[in-house]
């Protein structure tokens, strides 16, 4: 009897495996040692090391989870348990640009649904949220703590806020062409609005 | 608007406020110098007397929490840890991100002072996974502080040595619950733990642990520098000081506002938030983040922004200060369905009522929203919420239940109308003509 | 000791006792799924929510409530009834309700508690979540993820008892799912316990799958004979057929566990290797006929009696009595080591390297005859002709010693082996679950065997087989009733003085076998009774 497909949510999609050998370089090993040194227990480094693995291989294939387990003297099941609990650890490959669009209340009140539908149409996303060229993946996610500047989305590590259809177009067009990305940073300061007494 | 000192947002908006140089021009680390010259007990005493309450949501007096750490002889040789809760993930709340982004040194300074008071050698800032870019800014600030000798060995020549690290989560609302945060930083699933034991006695790595919110710790330097009397003079007797309110929704000027506790809610709405959009009327406000009971306009008119008033007037809570305003365009069934999707998604999956109940409530609400629900469903919905509230390990169960309980009670007509239109075979949302 | 109250009934319990156990003491059952007395407290199922009258704030879970002076809880309030009903409702939301095809049926806590505390009409109008069924996750276990109630007992067992940690609850929210890392299989020797502790039908034992509805089975107490640990077991049987062994709780011996080898050893009862008829010179014989032949062989011979570390203490005692009455010059031997066909596995959890259940019983009784010889002594005696006839109880002496044995060999045993093949007379002994008696385990705990099913074929209790030889000599050497034999045994063997069969209770009685020696906490050698 083999594993029932439904039994494990982590699955190697279409037999995909990560690119390159699943092993750390000497330099990475030293960096991991430095991470481990930050904590009293080796196990505490599990999330930082999973992040590191995800940055390196793009997503967390079973083989990667096994490597992380071996790196920290843990059982693969312990690493998988953590990897499946947290939604930002990718259990499947995604496009180069992972768009996480917030659809929770504050953003929804300000038209998040409209913006997300615009993204879906613009990028011709399939039911899994992937664009035809595989460059973009869209996920609808819960609150990202940018409620005052919604609708908003996170693309890879960065927040893009106060979205309108027009603004989404500018951002996504730039990314589609792999032009330098618009820098979203100043917007946060701009929205640091505090009346002076 | 009355005159009051800006405590937390003092240097927000100043160009380069996040850099050590600019922050020091505005007095950063003076309080730390002062605190390190005081005894730990004196520092705790000042915080205790200031009446500062935890800004993460529960509002527990910070100074009292600090006193729960057992004395050294009762720690079994274990160190004390301080964890800064920067998991900010309560929908409607985004103030901590502003604190860390605009004035990271204020938080670092607050943690130095708190650690001195608590006898902490190593502390951690736990950031939600999506705050990776905030972590980068914090790490830069930490590097600056280390370079100047404000962190590390023998800070300011006081003999106090202290290390501070950042730790990144990976997408789990529940990690804002202090025991879940502890589980998470230990490298486990972020699932809340049974109490007792309480973290102050046995927390992270089986050691005494204090978990404080970003805003709480960021308020500490000002209190040390200006004295507890100055802090206590702001706000109300039970709720002293200022608080950051994250204001979002149908308002003209969303943003983070620092106001004295006790400010009338209508003032926050009209004076700071710029009021509603032109031509619209108020339907509801969630005053303290998505988990707290919703308030009606009549309740809003009577309430002040402090811990006691909101509870007394509306049975709701100040929570984390996530102020979500909904005007008359809001469909309350849709709004509640939206919130329950969040709770169904974020339940840690540990306790039976919350794991099964939050998703079940969401399913019922989806049918209600889509015009497929019956009166029985409405009864069941209310029942399920009551059956989850207070019957789980952590407060999440109550957090998922309270929006349901308050929405279906205070905006009952809208829910009943959905059921009636469903029974009449009308498209979802189309009301039955009276 | 703090005095606590459960439903108004006061009871004194050791400090820190949790309230599920405290309530048990006054006969109040607090329903639970996740709590298990031999695992850490998880507190997740919420079935044990009770009202707190005094000494705390309620409602709270009884499993994580430590007894302190003055603590008073109630389980009989409408609120508690309502809470239990509601937890049952939540647990069944995503449960497949596939009881007809579920092996747990009849011993399922969802079924039991539904009858007692649930009884709600379904108001679920939404589809249930589908999860993986029939997953082969180990040699002994099948996993059905959608029957799981996420109580995490199996996860804690794998972490805390076996330390292997294969099972985990993956994902979160209502997507939470019990599972195992892809490509990994359960590899430990305690898998069957997972099926036992699983309160529902998520983890079931392959061996028992679709064999029998449990409500037809009777349970009888016994002790596993697989090794010197002496794990307490329940024999599940119907109409003289044994369907399974399950562990019986004994906190001092095996907690709630048993190894898989022990669990599956019920199959030995019907093994083709059973000796089911008496034999004389390889020919089937009636028991009295074979006993006569044995008596003839031993009478006047230079007899060596090999006391059996797998025989009951009663059979060994019968041998002592036989020697005293009829074979005054016989020498006593206890042969160390295991039979050649014994399992070699051992661990620090339960499984002992000594595969005999009653080595101390054999040593204690043999020593009643004075000096006791070992394997080397027996070999030497056989070689020199000082011993020219053997009476062997259970042990495969031929297999163990690997030397030629005398033609005058009488074997009393349950299974065929090299000794039974070599024996001139074979008297078939019942399997240990087929007869009463006692064993003394590695701790020096006297534990009781019971007749749970009828002996196979012509086999009789091992002590009765020895006694049959006595009768052939001219008179019974021991009384007939087990309690009377034990009474005689307890009176005759100093270490057992004062014990009664009934007094052994369900959990057995510890005796002092060993002179205390500092720094040694493992039993060393049986000291002769003084």
Map the helices and strands.
The complex is a heterotrimer of chains A (197), B (434) and C (530).
Chain A: H1 26-36, H2 46-57, H3 62-71, H4 76-85, E1 97-102, H5 105-109, H6 112-123, E2 136-141, E3 153-155, E4 158-160, H7 165-176, H8 186-190
Chain B: H1 20-25, H2 30-36, H3 40-50, H4 62-67, E1 80-86, H5 95-102, H6 104-118, E2 120-127, H7 132-147, E3 163-168, H8 178-185, E4 209-213, H9 214-226, H10 228-232, E5 242-249, E6 255-260, E7 263-264, H11 265-272, E8 282-286, H12 297-302, E9 304-305, H13 307-314, E10 322-327, H14 332-346, H15 352-369, H16 375-388, H17 396-410, H18 412-423
Parallel strand pairs in B: 1-2, 1-4, 2-3, 5-10
Antiparallel strand pairs in B: 5-6, 7-9, 8-10
Chain C: E1 3-6, E2 9-12, H1 19-25, E3 49-54, E4 60-61, E5 72-74, H2 78-93, H3 109-118, E6 135-136, E7 141-143, H4 153-160, E8 167-170, E9 177-180, H5 191-197, E10 203-205, E11 218-223, E12 232-238, E13 241-247, H6 260-264, E14 278-280, E15 283-285, H7 287-298, E16 303-306, H8 313-326, E17 331-333, H9 359-366, E18 372-373, H10 375-384, E19 389-393, H11 397-401, E20 408-413, H12 418-422, E21 425-428, E22 437-440, E23 445-449, H13 462-473, H14 482-492, E24 509-510
Parallel strand pairs in C: 1-5, 16-17, 16-19, 17-18, 19-20, 20-21
Antiparallel strand pairs in C: 1-2, 3-4, 3-5, 6-7, 7-10, 8-9, 11-12, 12-13, 14-15, 14-21, 22-23, 23-24
Helix pairs in contact in C: 2-3, 7-13, 8-9, 8-13
